[in-house]
Protein 1
Amino acid sequence: MESAHESAAEALRLYEARDAARGATADATSMRRHAVARLAAPLPKAKEIDQFVRHMEARGYSVACRLHQGFAEKLNKDVKHVRPKERVRQTHEVTVARLKIKCAFRVKHMKTASDALQIKEATPHTAAAAAAAHNKHNSTSTTAPDNHQPTVHRGLVGVYADESAICTVGLSGMGLNYRGYAIEELAEHCEFEEVAYLLLYGRLPTRRERDEYVARLAPMRALPPALCTILEQLPATAHPMDVQRTACSAIGTMETEPEDPKARTPEGGARVAERLMSVLGSAVLYWYHFKTSGVRAVPSVDPNETMASAFVRMLKAPTNGASFTPDPLHVRTVDASMTLYAEHDLAASTFAARVTISSLSDMHSAITTAIGTLRGPLHGGANEAVMHMLKPYRSPDAAESAIREMLAKKQLVMGFGHRIYKGGDPRNKVFKGISRMLSMEREGSGGDPTLYAVSERVEKLMETEKNMFPNADFYAASSYYQCGIPIELFTPIFVVGRTSGWAAHCLEQRSANRLIRPSAVYTGPPPRTFVPINERTEENAKL
């Protein structure tokens, strides 16, 4: 069997001869020589592969880089940051006008270069038709007028921007996992503090570590006097998310990270995260009580009290918290929801936080960025919208009639569908069970069997009529509402939980940082001649 070098040289001679006969450009010949040279290398490293792919794509070529499992296993030993096994089979292919290149890297059983490097000629008509069909069936991707321009993936749909060891979302057979643990098990058996510890430090705590962690977080719920002054100045009409965003930014001016990025440590970043996820709940509740009743609420700093219990205590008893006993089921609801909302891969807010931290900015700025992104209605706030939708219906029949009318008018029914979970959100099962439990066990004291029945009827109707399933926000709405939590405070609880996930991603970004700076395909006017303002007219200004 010929060696990789021999087969590469043979393939190169064949391709160059064909290029000469067809009058191929020097650039095409150079690219093929570069490709074959890479194939001849005994074992390309992950960094080399990435450089090669970028080199090819920058010149208008389509590159599919398939890593065989043996290669992936080798990289697992040799390379610190490797591609997850589930991405080994991933192939990225884009049709271009003149040439399609597929580059497959073999490790143990490299075949001949002609097998490893498949170069197929495509006529302009065929390539253009393929590109048009691709764009027609994928409205999120568009190709620039110049067929040699790269494909644009609007909203970065289907784009893998980085690798992460924190969370899996929607992968076949894996559902939603935090660092390998199924979300259902974490929500059922763990307190939020355990989950936050897992996300920030990579493993679940022992009993002793859990107790020490709860005690360490408790004093972090305290509000600095300067922050209280700021919160009291915010208008009563402000959105609670804006209050949390402002509080996060304000704390960043009082409790700063080192200005020198080299002086920042993972432990220091984790402490900032712990302070923020502890204090942001206190901040929004302080503002809420002050604006609604003039009361200056005091957060609990009991070293034995969990974050969820302290939140319920401060919400329900802002002035006499010491003598108030939170309802265990309400505490369970808030605690589980913080876990369920804690992390979700590169959601818009998480990606925004990583973009900020990639510029070597501080943790407070990154979390402030994330809160601002979550503020948008296409990301956060859906659980509030669900409750506003369900609240008027006093019977399942009334709800079904109204929802059918919405569907007939092609109106959006909140709380259904997900870009990733096409067969149902795994978090929904947990939230639905909590909502059902509240409706049965707390009837007459906040529990609302009618609300649960309405929710269930809407769920069945949407599945039957639209084949759509609830996302996490749908039953979260009725769960929160039955606990007596004001609707405008639904999403702020989301913020408290997700801060742990945002921070975990920020720390991961710092560990192998590279500035996140994507490119855009320019579609503006061609180069124009500048006209001084004194010579500018309406006619020549448009040229």
Protein 2
Amino acid sequence: MELSATTTIDGDRIQEYAKKLRSEGTLEYWTLSKLARNLNNEFNKLKGQNRGKLKQRDLNITPELIAHLQQKFSEYFNQQFWLEKAEFILQGLKQWKAKGIILTKPEISLTLSADLNKDETTVELSLKELCAAESASELLASIIAQQSLRDELLKLLKVATKPILVTEPRLFINSSITSIPTPAILASGLQAQLRKDLWFESNGLAVFQHKCQAQSDNYIEHYISNPGDIELLPWEAAEQIINKFGFTSAKLHLIYAAHTMKQVNPWESDFTLKATNIIKELGWDKRTDLSQSHKLNEIAKAAFALSCFVSRAFWIEGRTKNKVNVSYPTGRTWDSVIEPCGTADIFTRKIEQPYEVFITVRPGLWTKHFLNRAGAKAKQALYQFGYLAQKVLQIDPYHDELALRLALHLTMESRFHQSGRYEVKTLLKMALPETELETARSDKRKAYELKQRWDNALKLLISLDWQIQYDLESYSAWLQPGNQDKKRMPKGYIDKLLAAKITILQPTPIPDLIAIKAEPQAPTSLLSKQTPITVEQLRKVREAKGWSQAKLAGWLGVSRSLIALIERGQRPVSPALETKFRELLDI
């Protein structure tokens, strides 16, 4: 690639233009696309030679393929490359402006001649295409000279022609919020990942237990299993998986849940996610301290940990005089397959630097039992949901750990704690080990640090549009964040802070959306148009579901004898009870 030696460009201008070329990425993309097509042509030639005929195949230029080539040839696109291309393009434009021609090789001048009568932008694009074509040819020559590299890339092209997985779009393309299911198992699962200190050993197994607030007899337990089967791991082995839990797995847990809500059959369908999209959901695409492959590996590690996460629900379904009927389903919280894409290390056989990770997910089969059979008003558990704000996923745990813990907890709890009113102590006990609170009550320095962390967490939530109100009676102005009074805090201030009351609500319009959904529906007009439920219909539907009269009575909160009287036609069905029958039995 040559231009007239008499054409000179200012060095600063070349530097500036080189920076622009590099940042816009067009030249690099064109070069690698042309290289991929040239390699594909080589593949077709080899195929024709081996089979006696040339059978062409199409190449799918995917972002994953380009990303892999970028990684493989990153050293080629060095500073010298960008300076040389910048100088060539600027010299070509200068000659074109002065003479209407570009003095370079005859065959290249001929190639460009059709564009020389057009505008400057068209000429500039033509020069970029020329640079891309020559660079691709240069790279191809170096690849052909290295047999091992050529074989590796030809294998990569084989992969590139395979059918592409249908993946889910990103969650927050058109909105900054998305709906998210909040049944008890998912809520307790989130807490199990955030509070690793609450796991304990029982009969040699690692266990996390969550007792339900509404009915203390009901509880949920979490265990750790092998990724391939449901065998529960002993404490020592399970602890290694538990240590992989944290903010990344907790956020991924919520992302799985949010995508579940978007399926046509939410608790029955599987779906595939691209880790490169998850990186954007988490805001990691803006991080420059980690390579893309490192980010993808972190997502894969979190997905692996979730694949070992087992849930068991102990749920009272009904009571009789002498016994309690319970549901005790056990299964993986999420069933998943994790597929990293990239070149395997020749020695370890592992893909150390993936260019993509595909995660195919479906809710575990516990949903068949817990959501459809157990739990108060069982059927409704399918439709318990709140809303997740994208900014919650992008809170940095390194700088704002407490704010993230609060935001994640409040997101899952907002559906059934709509007032948002809490004691500060309640929120801190949820987020932190209780020993930290006790230490703060007896150690002045720890008290100061705890208050600073709490204040900074509130400030961050406010900056993310969360709505916070301080109780005027218990949360004095001098206790609130941003207080300008420089006086020394009075003795016992940490106890006053812990006892203070505060209201924290998610960003608008989430509280309004939750409130609208929670409003009771008036069924009278609907019922008046429906044929009343018959005794025979009620009995047949109940038996078809395999439910006893006692089980149905337990879910409805009535006695078994009432159900028996209704089915014998000796007691009429009230409008309120008919509504419950229709909701629970899908009549």
Protein 3
Amino acid sequence: DLQVVDRLEQDICNFDFDIEATDRPQWYLQAVLCDRYPDEFYLIWSANHVITDGVGMLHILKSIVETANSGDFHLRPDQLVDSIEPRAFELVSKKCREMKVTTHSALYNCIIMSLLEIFGVGRAHTMEFRTSTPFNARPYCKPVVPSSDVGMYIGSIVRDTSMSLDTIHSAFWEHCRDYMQYIKTGHVQGLRHVSVLEYVGTFPEDYTQGWFDRIKSLPMGRGCSFIFSDVGKVVIPHKGDSSKHWDVQALHCSQSSFVSGCGFIATASSTNVGGLNLAISYQKMDFTKHEINLLMNTLKKNILNIPLYQPSKL
């Protein structure tokens, strides 16, 4: 069943929205049912990134859930069974809190660590990375844009760094704090790139030429090594409220990678009912399926090893 859903998600991420056709929708909503589980379904909501960002999509998703919960549905009760992974990840979160760093910063450094393990040449080999971290720019608008606005309001914090396996293993938590500080002070730099497309020129020919020129001018045709997009924790009503009839058990977000953007995109999402999902999307021919599977397995190993890292000795 999950393989069927995975194939559907892959097809959706590969779908090419036609932004020139004004009579075609720029978003789709699909409900996937399974005969074996009559009281469950998958809801797949996809949209063209031109018309909305992650915050806007999540607002619509929450509205859909709330609308469904207002109906007169009566379902048999179900009981969620805890698996090992949520408990293991709680140890990760606990260690991050103990070291006073965000889980986001730990995941970011785990991604870099995994890339060093797979593509590096020895533990002392230093690799250079340029990363991009999108952020919600609504609070920085004048006037402030509410989260319920489903438009496109994002900035991106670009960071250049170089690391080796030896340096990141010996000072993992310090690298997390360095990244946190950079993100904390990097919003001004990220906001400088907002609305720059307004000055590109005539659509679509000047836009297309702009992207071609961008590909030629960038190292390996890429704006950065990878994008780490974290939509944060989504608070969704659950069955603790007697008026609710549907329960969201899991949520994960992904987005199509684009030619001149990055090597791959890592998208993290979580909910108030627990659990964190991380999706990886990439351009075919840039990575092999084996390399991506190796990246996911290595990343999982490094995340589960987070509780083992100790403060570095000064």
Protein 4
Amino acid sequence: MNLLPWSTELSRNMTYLEDSTSDEFRFKDEESIKFIIGEDQYVISKKSLCAINSSYFKNICLTHKEIGKDMTNELVTNKEIRSFHQILLYIATGSTDFYGDYGMLKDLLTAADKYDVATLKLTCERYLLHYITIDNAVELIQLAFSSNAKFLETHSAAFIKFHIEEIRYTETFQNPQEDLNKIMELIEKSKMLEISTHQFFSLPPTIKETFTLAEIH
């Protein structure tokens, strides 16, 4: 793993967003959770975990009484480990540079949905749309279905509608019979998005976050 675990000192020096909605989510600077993944450990402050507004991480902050949270049994595959690692990086730093890795974006979208990290999820959706093509449009809308990614779903449907004559003959469009009716319903509803989506796809990524994607070997 190329990324070194973050120290408690680093987590204390982070700038945190205050959650003004409830005192139950206010934690002292020194309160933190140590996430254990195999032989690696990552210390993230509870303030930072709650600032991301994730029900998963808020629940850990409120209910997990031990300092360490062992994720080894929960994270089974390399994809799961790498994606969770990147989520922790995002929470600790507020940024990541993953838009150049299409496969990582797909995995990270799935993980962001699973762990309820909405801001990261939407960022993944936006970047994935800049990779949409005739060949992978159906794959992306199916990913949107499974990840409850409405932004990706809506704009993928508009793209499919705009290029339906080419896409209808692709293997991916003909194979997913269980999703075909849903796809057809969505593209019928996407008429108003055709022009705006066409313009969207012609623009370079506008999200200004800069991240460093750390590989896990």
